[in-house]
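Worked problem 6 (solution included).
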Amino acid sequence: MRRWLIFGLWVASVATAVAQEHNAARLVTADTSYVDVALGVAGQAGSLRDIFDAKREIGGVLGAQAQRTLGQVHTYGRFGYGYAYGQDVTWRGWIDPYETPFMLADSIPGSISLERYSMEAGVGLPVGGGWSLGLDATYDVALMAKHKDLRNKNTAMTFRISPGVYWQGGPLGLGLNLGYERSTERVEYTQISESKEAMLFDLYGLWLGHGSGYASAENRRMKLRQHVFGGFQLDLSLGGVQLHNALTANWHRGEQTEVGYNNRQYGTTHAWTWNDALSLEIGRAHRIEASATFSTMEGLRPLQRQELDPDSRIRIWVTYGDPVSCYWRRVHAEKLRYTYGTSWQVSVGIENFSFEHAYNEYPQRFNQRYHTLIPTLAVTVPLGPVTLTPMFGYARDYDTYTDVTEWQLKEPLLFQWDYWDGDAILGGLGLKWVSASGRTYVSAQYDLMASTLADADGRRHTAALTIGFIF
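Solution. The predicted structure is:
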């Protein structure tokens, strides 16, 4: 699944500027104070895209973050707002369609607007003996709306809280944080025009599911996800050698229900995600970055049928037995990058990405897998106050497979597979200007992804411009 989300990554980077770790106790290691405000615009276009993405999209972001030391108390705060408008979007029932295999979606192309509000606060306090305590909290809200029948309106919320502890003795620093995250998303479909019947699809995974005519009584869902996570951090400084390592683990449970009184359930998910990120700096000229991510997900569907409640005389959904396991997914990614240089820099990296999933529809089992290898090369060229960064990469698919049967929705399945199954050339050019005072900066970025199998339309262009002020 080559979701080369340059636009999404740019939105996140501008909104958060420099992302803070969830262990706020580590704020005491940086005795700095600053305010960073950034404003940006970006757009992307092209036919080489994920089926859930817009054919053309433009958006803007406003982000502000600050860090202050007040006596012994170290504080951090962040606020971000982002808006994106996309055209020709289909099958986008959830804000993030890859969070779950169970979807409610329609196939009519239309324009979609997406707003995001993000807030984060952290505080760290030294308590003596090299120890410090911290607390990090985040609250995010997202709103998505489609502007053509069938019209879906999505409202999502995420709240996260994470206490942490950090110890530093000489060259060694150790940190530990635990946390809880709860996210909800509600989708509701409506139809303005009554001139024709619209189809609404209930999907279970790998584009298996069923479609039915739109009915106002069956158009609302609620998705709830709960996460429990933990992280361990190690910092080591030995002369000119700096090593930082962060290991995180996340377990989540998700469930979907109909919004209303009749207790209908659509599926639950269980997932484990592990991530380890390491950076090693040797002197000023050598830097090595490596990371590994592994995630597994299981999807289960309940056995339900409608029965008449003898007390209320209303038909309700009744569950029988335990949910049945029907979906399985595994994702892993490994990244390695080496950077050499001080002012001029050369960076060589490689990423291995693997995505596999399967769906059981007794007595058959449907499979899909995608493996790709992505080498990249980037050069940083300083020209006075301006820095140029050209980048080149190649996405090589070395193992791909999908089942195609009459049980699946073939049009979206094959559209998606044409995007996944094929090599692509990656290119980019970045430019950044910093004022003499260092308090104002402007950055521009252009990226291109071009399929080696498709015609001239098999490309994706992304451009972004950001201006920032540091106080």
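Discussion: The longest strand covers residues 364-383.
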